[in-house]
Amino acid sequence: MVGDFELRAPVVIVTSGGIGGNHDLVRQNWPARLGPAPRYMVTGVPAHVDGRMLAITQQAGGRIVNPDRMWHYTEGLRNYDPIWPGHGIRILPGPSSMWFDATGKRFGAPDFPGYDTLHTLKSITASGYDYSWFVTTKKIIGKEFALSGSEQNPDLTNKNIWLLLSRIWQTPEPIQRFVDKGADFVSATTLPDLVTGMNRLTGDNLVDLTDLQRQIEARDREIENPYSKDAQVMGIRNALAYPGDTLSRTAAIHRILDPDAGPLIAVRLNILTRKSLGGLQTDLSGRVLDATGQAVPGLYAAGEVAGFGGGGAHGYRSLEGTFLGGCLFTGRQTGRAAAAATA
After folding, report:
1. CATH number, domain 12-73+275-342
2. Of 13, 14, 40, 174, which shows the fewest CB atoms inside 10 Å?
3. What does pTM read for this prediction?
């Protein structure tokens, strides 16, 4: 494009996504219920998902509702090979890593890996810092870590069943590359060396070796207790009771400080921007509504820019795994309505 241009159409369908690529806009709309907005975040969506079309549509008469409804992840990594500025990758963890705040204090229930994302997000911001730590082992990472993004899952992207099955007996190559090259990973054979590396990485010197060792050893003792009431240990055992998780998703239960499971690995976890749960208010046909509740002539919206339907179909918390369905359904409804309006 070498200059300005203008296109006119009887209908316009806005499908520009949310605001996750614009950190200033994320902070501007950050909900008070999740604590203070993070100073630093990594970006889980391309740069063009910046909320610009929300503002343009608002200027055209559309109404934005529920802008404080959003869903961001707590297990973000800085991508060593970024595709867009500030590109973050999310860890999809199994249940066994220990999770600590920036000062080395272990989170309690339900702030365990793979549990309640938004509750954990609130706990992290309440700690006064915008990052947290996994302390884990090579054995756990090899079995329990998965990464978001099609480029991080060549087995699924390329429909390679043998490569997919190889996750059962080896650490997937994309994960091993992050362990080796990722800026957020610290590996060590001893806990003192691990803590030294953690404090060196952040420059904050917040993690105390004695306190961290006390908490890890306390969790490790619960591994030996078949009647343990440690909520995370109980969750690991529940996962291992399911054959599918035992086979491909949950490492055999072991002590974090077991040298045979090592080396020890700490992972700095950043807040990763992702989904907007509010947006342009629409009716059931995807027509964008104005401040009086009337449809703006010729203007439609679908997908995340419309809060996955109506301007906030998910409410404040949503349910992981249900976002794509809202995009597909509103896209179908809106497409049919726009086609009928121009027939």
Report:
1. 3.50.50.60
2. 40
3. 0.93
